[in-house]
Amino acid sequence: MRPPSAVSTVSSTAPPTAPTAALGRWPLAAAAVVTAVFALSNAPTPLYLHWQAELGFGAHTLTTIFALYIAGLLLTLPVAGRLADRLGRAPVLVPGVALAIVASLLLLTAQSVLALALARVLTGVAVGVVVSAGMAAVVDLGGAGRRARASLAASIAMVLGAGLGPLLAGAVAQLTDAPVAPVFALTTALLTAALALSLLLPLERAPRPAAAAGRAALFAPPRAPRANRRQLVLGVAAFAPGISATSFVLALGPSLLARLLGGTSPLLAGGTACAMFLAATASQLAARGLTVRTLLLASCAATTLAMAALTGAACGALVPLLVAAALLAGAGQGLGQLGGLTLIATHVPADRRSEANAALSSGGYLPAGALVVATGFLVDALGLVTATVLFGAALGATAVAAAAVIAREPR
To answer: 4-13, 240-249, 293-302, 318-327: which range is least confident on average?
Structure first.
């Protein structure tokens, strides 16, 4: 049955607080695959300063390496989303997890900036596959009556993995001066288990009857069906500032923390990143009974407060404010992501759902990557504090503008 496609409001859809039935083991197994790949995505965060000291590169190179991950993701999303809708989830998901293993092995053995760059591109490709095919697989396996619940599981799996990766890496880096090998040996083991699990998932492999998707060029930018594009725009309006805020914390948070502390602390850097994504998870769990309109507005509010705290931390050299900024940024991303994914899961037809998920992620990650790279160049030109203040002011204003757009939607 085709889901409803109401486009005039975002307030009519609220994630249910009490699902009609438990999700079952297979949606949770698919969510575990998502978690493993996202653990790899942010595991390098506490290690950037280690590589920077070892290989001798500046802030703009650091943020460019981070942005190459986003570039790989963005280049993959259009193709992965459409292939997953046309061929089924498994033929796309399994190669994506295999690529994540290759990326993990490259990070384990990297001895140059080029190797780090290639590893991050491949990580982005793997994450692009998981964001489209993997998260859609969680919703598919959840069944037609539990789409909102499955969307919550998929979103939590993403942020949980994104937080566990840097915590693991930070803890190892705090204990040893040679953290790279043990960190990525562990991520490789996790990803190998995820690959085996992805092969067992009972996913449809036959081509799907997707006439609309079939008419679209395979390499065209991902988009939602015409009737659902307003909902996609509203989701992106909240999700993009949130993901931009968390991207800053992941790329430049350890550098700012080292400046405030007068020295590096990998465990604190990794723990802060983990806490950020745990805040995203907690905010999603706490917000299950809210309407989507409220989720999106709360996301914008959290991101605005995060940028105020970030600016205060940079100007006042206050570590607690930096931690508060990370927690608020996590909440901003989590709420915006949940709102956007719920709109897609409950309104977009199954044969276009992967592509719509890809479009949501593209709309969030593209400005996030551009802003972080630009900030890296500003750090080298103007200094870390000035660049941080400019970033915070620009992103805070963007979140306020997004809230104004969302607030104008009819109730």
So the answer is: 4-13
Residue 344 · residue 235 · CB < 8 Å: yes
Is residue 2, in this structure, part of any structural domain at all? no
3-state secondary structure 96-128: HHHHHHHHHHHHHHCCCHHHHHHHHHHHHHHHH
CA diameter of the chain:
59
**Lookup result for tokens 């719509």:** 356
Q: How many CB atoms lie within 10 A of CB 137?
A: 31
* Cα–Cα distance measured from residue 312 to residue 315, given in angstroms and rounded to the nearest whole number: 5
Distance separating the N- and C-terminal Cα atoms of the chain:
26
Tokens linked to 322: 């930096």
- Tokens 């940024």 sit on residue: 329
117 within a domain of the structure (yes/no): yes
**Residue 205 has what pLDDT?**
57
User: Which alpha helices (H) appear in 130-265, and where do they start and end?
Assistant: 135-142, 147-175, 180-200, 211-215, 229-261
E strands present in 234-351: none
Tally the residues of the chain: 411
* CATH number of 58's domain: 1.20.1250.20
Shortest CA distance to 292 belongs to which of 355, 374, 237? 237
- Listed ranges 70-84, 144-158, 307-321; the one with the highest mean pLDDT: 307-321
pTM greater than 0.90: no
Q: Which residue type does 19 have?
A: P
Residue 105 in domain = yes
Look at residue 213 and tell me whether its pLDDT is greater than 50: no
DSSP conformation letters of 34-74 = HHHHHHHHHTTGGGHHHHHHHHT--HHHHHHHHHHHHHHHH
Range of the domain at 111: 25-205+227-407
pLDDT tens profile 281-294: 899 889 878 888 89
Token reading at 284: 């999603």
- Asked if the structure places residue 20 within a domain, the reply is no
